[in-house]
Amino acid sequence: MSPLCEDFHAALSSLEHDLAQTTLLIYAGSEPLDFEDFLDLSALLELELQALGLQEKYQLATFHPSYQFAGVTEDDPANATNQSPHPMWHLLRCEDVSSAIASHPDTLSIPERNVQLLRRLHDEIDRH
User: Fold this and answer.
1) pLDDT in tens, 59-106
2) Structural domain containing residue 59
3) How far apart are CA 46 and CA 22, in angstroms?
4) In total, how many domains does the chain have?
5) CB-based contact 90:71 (threshold 8 Å)
6) Contacts of 52 (CB under 8 A, 6+ apart)
7) Which residue in 99, 103, 94 sits closest to 15, CA to CA?
8) Is the Cβ–Cβ distance between 8 and 25 less than 8 Å?
9) Which of 2, 70, 77, 115 suits a disulfide with 122, CB 3.0-4.6 Å?
């Protein structure tokens, strides 16, 4: 088992035993992890959740220094919503996500609002 999978299992165990509300797995490899390899690893972690029968209980949010959404250019400020200093995976309890969604009047607008804010801030910086 790879070190990442071992860390993933340890993180899941911590969540399963209520030792943590949420957890981050941060890639700390000595070699950089390019975005395509990161996406492949993310897919493997999703498959591992399925193999363990935990895909309905936990979800992964992904972040990478070179995160780029499909359909946008590399320099689009929208990408910053999922960029981070290091590649990382955020494990969340689905019930917590559902609870947060239920308590907010319009969660579907949050990502678009964040994208628009980043683009506006980027434009303001460019003007100065």
Assistant:
1) 999 999 999 998 999 999 989 999 999 999 999 999 999 998 889 888
2) 3-127
3) 16
4) 1
5) no
6) 12
7) 94
8) yes
9) 77
pTM to 2 decimal places: 0.83
How far apart, in whole angstroms, are the C-alpha atoms of residue 9 and residue 107?
30
**What are the structure tokens assigned to 54, written together?**
């935990």
Give per-residue pLDDT as tens, 32-68.
Answer: 899 999 999 999 999 999 999 999 999 999 999 999 9
Report the Cα 34 to chain-centroid distance in Å. Answer: 15
Q: How far apart are CA 87 and CA 84, in angstroms?
A: 7
DSSP string, 16-44: HTTS-SSEEEE---SS---HHHHHHHHHH
- Which of 59, 45, 60 lies closest to 9 in space, CA to CA? 45
